[in-house]
Design goal:
Elements lengths: L1 H34 L4 H5 L4 H7 L1 H17 L3 H25 L1
Length: 102
């Protein structure tokens, strides 16, 4: 149905916007983390696997956004939105885990 494809496209576009916005703030945090110039990111003290998870966000965003787009072009609407939205949802969960549960 055409309506399902249109709503799926809107979902993917909003997921791309969310991923891009998080990538913008991730860039600022990564600069602060790598230079050690201050900010809340240095007080969290990311080491080992947590630091690797944090620094892998651009690769995760690129892979899952491309996968979502390819799935959309292949006609897998629901899975496409889920894959495109995964980086934003995963970064939110990672942040909550770092701040609230750690």
């Amino acid at each position: 149905m055409l309506g399902d494809r249109t709503l799926t496209l809107y979902g993917i576009i909003f997921a791309f916007i969310a991923t891009g916005a998080i990538l913008f703030f991730w860039t600022m945090g990564a600069i602060l983390l790598l230079t050690g110039n201050g900010g809340q990111i240095n007080f969290i003290a990311l080491t080992g696997g947590l630091r690797t998870l944090f620094l892998s966000y651009p690769a995760v965003a690129l892979v899952f956004s491309a996968l979502g787009l390819l799935l959309y072009l292949g006609g897998r609407n629901t899975v496409a939105v889920a894959m495109a939205g995964f980086p934003a949802a995963a970064s939110l969960l990672f942040y909550l885990w770092l701040v609230a549960l750690r």
